[in-house]
Task: structure prediction
Amino acid sequence: MLTMDDAWPGLQDHVEATLRVVFPHNATCRVRTKGAHNIKVYFKHLPCLFPQHGPGKKHDRKIALEPWQQEIVDAHPWEFVKGLVHSDGCRITNWTTRLVRGERKRYEYPRYFFTNKSDDIRELFTGTLDQLGIAWTHCTRHGNPYNISVARKASVALMDTHIGPKY
Result:
């Protein structure tokens, strides 16, 4: 079951379509919940495909890719990054002000954020960004390192080419 916010109906459609491709012989369905839909597929071997799944919070247990999963990520790193950004990230227009010849001017620039409490998931994300040559930094908020920022112009442009907007 994947819970998808109703703010992104196109992402819900994409997830359901992907489940139908990956599991062509299994039924998928949507179940409404407050502010979201649960998109479900039933397959008795899902724990084999996602051994990271388990009881408790993700940030309280080890999240590591199996060697066969890492091979897939290595072969398709942009798809992995795109999935992570679309699930736990965003692209925004950030802004700051600068003093230019005595006058305060507003400066805007695009930026990607990825936020996750799990150190392991953030490391999977940043390790893949490193592999792709994307410059990133930690953006600590209230002492918590949960945010990863991509703000350098060349890196944002490269991500724009491969990630695209959320639906």
Observations:
- Helices lie at 9-22, 46-49, 67-75, 77-88, 119-132, 153-162.
- The chain has two domains: 1-49, 60-167.
- The first helix runs from residue 9 to 22.
